[in-house]
Amino acid sequence: MATSNYIKKLREKIGHDLVWVPGAIAVIMNDNNEVLLGRRADDETWGLVGGFVEPNEQPADTAVREALEETGLTVAPQRIASVIAYERTYSNGDQCRYLDTAFLCKVVSGSIVGGNDESSGFEWFAKDRLPKLGHHDTQVIEAAFGGSAEAWFVPAA
């Protein structure tokens, strides 16, 4: 995931301190009930399509923008699949606390493009043959495949 100019400017001011970052994920499903995953260009792990919500964006717009930028597909969000917060510390020491809103999306038009600076490629996966994923992506996909019209979230403590 490329770092937005907003986050870069913020990092210039606060260094590696914890930053609260809103994110949006496009859980793109096809007619065969398969989910589209991208292989990250930096570490070759598989993951969902998504990115930072820019200061002037709504989360659903971010999911649509990120899907088009990363995959070449125009998608339409159908419902919120999940809302999850998690922390990550990067190898350079940057600390982030993400609040991701994941949208179940259908493809409206376009075709998958080859790799780019963020992803080396994309592939459709059935639920029973998913590659190894991080805990966060696994939670999001489980919620999306759940079939409920209600959004999933981590229950209050």
Automatic annotation (TrEMBL):
- Pfam families xrefs: NUDIX
Q: Does the keyword Hydrolase apply?
A: yes
InterPro entries for the chain: NUDIX_hydrolase-like_dom_sf, NUDIX_hydrolase_CS, NUDIX_hydrolase_dom
Q: Any keyword Hydrolase?
A: yes
**Span of the signal peptide:** none
- The chain positions of domain Nudix hydrolase read 19-155
The UniProt keywords, alphabetically, are: Hydrolase
The source's superkingdom equals Bacteria
Family annotation (PANTHER family):
ADP-RIBOSE PYROPHOSPHATASE YJHB-RELATED (PTHR43046:SF16), GDP-MANNOSE MANNOSYL HYDROLASE (PTHR43046)
- This protein is called what? NUDIX domain-containing protein
Give the species this sequence originates from.
Paractinoplanes aksuensis
Lineage, broadest ranks:
Bacteria, Bacillati, Actinomycetota, Actinomycetes, Micromonosporales
